[in-house]
Amino acid sequence: MTAPLTPPPPPHERSAQGAWQPPDAKSAAYGPQTQEAHAPGSQHAEYAGHGWYGQDGPGMKTEVREAAVISVAVALGGVLLGVLWWWLAPHVPLVGAVVNGDWVVYLKDTEGEQAIGVDGTFTLLALGFGVVSALVVFLLRRRGGVPLVVGLAVGGLLGALLAWRVGVWLGPGEDVVARAREVGKGVTFSAPLKLGAKGALLAWPLAALVFHLGLTALFGPRDPEPEFGDGAYQGPPAA
After folding, report:
1. Distance, first Cα to last Cα, the chain
2. Is pLDDT larger for residue 33 or for residue 110?
3. Radius of gyration for the chain, computed over Cα atoms and rounded to the nearest angstrom
4. Contacts of the segment 98-106: beta carbons below 8 A, 24+ positions apart
5. Distance CA 6, CA 2 (A)
6. What is the pLDDT of residues 68-89, one digit of tens each?
């Protein structure tokens, strides 16, 4: 007499290995689009084309090259500023005299404001050059950038220094005693062109920076808002 055979287990009691598993509750609720949205690298692929802050610039190397060219071009404008300063600045009158056999030079008008006018002329011209250079740079390169702003400031400072030296070189000689001997005792002659307030050298770069930043803030390009793809997480559906 044989023992009865053990019946096979029902289908629902079989081993879970290799069997079909129902989808997770959250996965079933949110659907496959949510899984694609949270897939690794999906956000990187989405923003690789234009980035979080709009289109990419021309590149750091290109910006540095453009900044160097702008700096040199702006600095060369100092030659024109120096010529205008020498031409428009008021002349400081001097007079030579002989005291105890030695030549001495003194101001003809001790209460005159010609020396202040020399500094003021340079400052006003430098401010105008700063505004013009900032406007030209903005029209040529609207996007701006840190290298561009630095190049503009450096070029303005170098241009102011060059203008100062060009104006002094074009003006009367610095040996006032020799000049007094040449023109004679009691004859009025012009003093050398001198920049008394060295802070005027900063007028050009500061004006260029402020005006360029203002133009960029008012009329510069705007970066588009970051766009999210259609597969982004939209939240669980309404019950």
Report:
1. 62
2. 110
3. 38
4. 98/185, 103/177, 103/180, 103/181, 105/176, 105/177, 105/180
5. 12
6. 999 999 999 999 999 999 999 9
